[in-house]
Amino acid sequence: MFSRMFLFFLYFLFLLSPPGLSLSLTQDGLFLLQARSCLSDPNNSLSSWNAAASTPCRWRGVTCDHHSAAVTALDLSFSFLSGPFPAALCRLPSLSSLNLSYNLINSTLSTVSLCRFLLYLDLSQNALVGPIDSLATLTSLRYLDLSGNNLTGEIPESLAALPHLETLNLVSNLFTGTIPASLGNLTLLKRLQLAYNPFKPGPIPRELGNLGNLETLYLALCNLEGPIPDTFSNLVNLISLDLSQNSITGHIPQWFTRFTRVTQIELYNNSLSGKLPRGMSKMTSLKLFDASRNELTGTIPTELCELPLESLNLNENKLEGILPGAIARSPNLSELKLFSNRLIGTLPSDLGSNSPLNQIDVSFNRFSGEIPANICRRGQLEQLILIYNSFSGEIPESLGKCKSLTRVRLRNNNLSGSVPEGVWSLPRLHLLELLENYFSGHISKGISGSSSLSNLLLSNNRFSGSIPQEIGLLDSLVEFAASNNNLSGQIPGSMVKMKQLVNLDLSCNQLSSDLKFGGIGYLNKVTDLNLSHNRLDGNVPSELGRFLVLNSLDLSWNNFSGEIPLQLQNLRLSELNLSYNKLSGDIPPLYANAKYKTSFIGNPGLCSHLPGLSNCYGRNKNWRYMWILWSIFVLAGVVFVMGVAWFYFRYRKVKKLKKGFYTSSWKSFHKLRFSGFEVTKLLNEANVIGRGASGKVYKVVLSNGEVVAVKKLSGVPAKVDENVGSRKDEFDAEVETLGRIRHKNIVRLWCCCNSGDHKLLVFEYMPNGSLADLLQGSKKSLLDWPTRYKIVVDAAEGLCYLHHDCVPPIVHRDVKSNNILVDDEFVAKVADFGVAKMVARAGQGTESMSIIAGSYGYIAPEYAYTMRVNEKSDIYSFGVVILELVTGRPPIDPEYSENDLVKWVSSALEHEGLDHVIDPTLDSKHREEISKVLSVGLHCTSSISITRPTMRKVVKMLREVTTVPKCTSVNDGNDPSYHEDSSHCITED
């Protein structure tokens, strides 16, 4: 009876089915369709999964048995699928291989345990959560890759019950506890990869030495301590060993030389000591050896250099002796980094002759002799870094033919002679650093050929002749330093074309003629200008007053004459030196104070009340005094009467105002054209333009027409306690750091006030307000996609500077769209960095535990259990800002229910697709760019902090979205990694 009813039911379904639907689809096909129904497929990756087919064997990602047509393998990697793991896949009886890597599978692994016949399982780079205990039932597994997820808990001992396992990859998850010793029972294991997990500090399990078949061991950044176990001597089949970024101590064992199959050894960033092992000649397969940043001593073994190495990194140790000549005979050597050791002797004369050298850095050693003539013989050398050694002789002519060079750093050596003509015109060169040598000859006119040059550093040499006009063609040049040479002639007028120039230092030369380069005002990014100790004459150009970001101006020891132009008062200079010239007349009022008392000495014609200068009144001073006295007496009566009346009505208000500021201590970081007292008078409720957790923000219009923003910090204890002095010192130290920041994408701090009851920060005013105001307010129509893209790149560069170019690095702690301000030209600047920390310190005490680092909707998930913030916290918050820009939505909204914008975007992408996520007010022609920027935002908001990119990487990814100029770091060059990455940020004011 039942069978008849079932057949009738099937017949009924057939009658109702559409004409194109086949009822002959195999059972495996039906299971796959059921699995598809559980997943979101915004990219239509599974469009070929057609229910009308008779078999799924031609569907995308499906592999079938040739005879039975049963599904045996499924590969849907990189398909942008999202949703829970589809349990229907485990009903495929012949399925032995499953690859769902690089998707957005976001469930636990409980249902995966039903796939008991799997041999191969790859679920890497998804959003899986929870523990992995349930996988112990997959006893047939040979390959298991769960890397790049959010899996938690301890690695279970039960994994040892997978006797056939050959690959175990759990990299980049959130596993805690320790590495279980029972993994040593997986004797068939060939690849064990557990790196980048927050394990509890502990030793490397000795039992791992039982894995005699192991070929890959990847335990980087696992909180490992103690020595390398001697049982590892049994791992003779190792091909790749990575124990980097731990706290491993002891020596590199002698038995390492038994690893005759190993191609890669990574031991960097540990605390290893002692000498490198001898007998390494047996390791004939070794290609990459990195033991940098340890405490290694002794010499570099010749046997190591005789190996066919591709990369040798021994930098930042305490190695001594010479570099064995055998290293030059390596046919594969591409990278050689030995900087910051105590090495002596010469570089092998044939270094580079037999090797495709790409990077060499032997800085901060005691090398001597000449630069090898054939170091770029293979034409692949990009970075030549030899700074702080004792190299002598000339630069080889062959380097002038090395078109691949991007960075040449030779500072602080004993090199001499002329720079080869070809070196001046290398087409890919970004940095040419020749400081502190004995180079002579001219700066070549061929320098215009180095069109990518951003830093030209020639100071403290013996260069002579004139600066060629062709230097003005270097429109990417950020820094030009040629001080302490014998340069003569005029400063080329063509230099006005160098619109990216930030730092110009031509001091201590013999440059002459008057300073007249037409259009000088176009150099509007210059922050430091030093032309001192030359023979320049004529008037000080009034056009210098257009250098609005100029921070330091030194024209001392020249022959300038005439009066000091009043236009210099437009500048906010922290350093000014016009001493030892032939200037005359009055000193501009802004500079006639004690701060600049040494800025004008040695100018007999100048007059002022400053020490060392003559009095401006001369012979007529008595008459002028009398005239002044009469004026005073005439006005005194009027002023006295009016003053008494005014004082009567204002006394109480002024007294109250002064009471709060009688202990005020004002600190300025730029030259100001207003007083602190004027600022405080205007702090009233009518001028409040913003309120936040850190305090109120006032818009203050000063008497000179200038507008500033004043933040009055809250959280200041009302009652003075025994720690108030130390807290005041902490505040002053924090603000001192903030005040020194100079970058085009960071809001400038003019000055601050720290009193017993008040803490004020005075910033430049940003007319367009915050990004949050623009996105959610009436001006949203102004934010087309190109403007939004510009804003996000600007903000990224500001944060990049804080994270990577400040010493020490600065963590913002409260990145949000409210703290990204926009000026009248829609240049975005980061604001309030460090303020959250100051408020927390100001309010610390019994309530300090209630102070949250960050703002709701922007706080990184790990903060909930670590209560710590770092650069990765900022990056998560910045990712939320990116999502705001793309979606036009706020970070928190009732529509999200209990979720936030990050989870809303993930859910919307899963169920509705990309078009539902993008702000509908944006032009669809930018869809591709918007999608790429959204991808960066999703990358930044990864729930696993270690998988988030650095801000340097974020800037690079954002700039790769469209064709825009690259940004380059500028610092003093003392670090061997100076300009290491082309994505460094430009440090400008």
UniProtKB/TrEMBL annotation:
Protein name: non-specific serine/threonine protein kinase
EC annotation from Swiss-Prot or TrEMBL: 2.7.11.1
Membrane topology: Single-pass type I membrane protein
GO terms for biological process, alphabetical: defense response; post-embryonic development; response to other organism
Sequence intervals crossing the membrane: 625-649
Pfam families according to UniProt: LRR_1 (PF00560), LRR_8 (PF13855), LRRNT_2 (PF08263), Pkinase (PF00069)
Binding site for ATP: 719
SUPFAM superfamilies attached to this UniProt entry: L domain-like, Protein kinase-like (PK-like), RNI-like
Enzyme class: transferase
Domain of life where this protein originates: Eukaryota
Chain ranges of the Protein kinase domain: 683-962
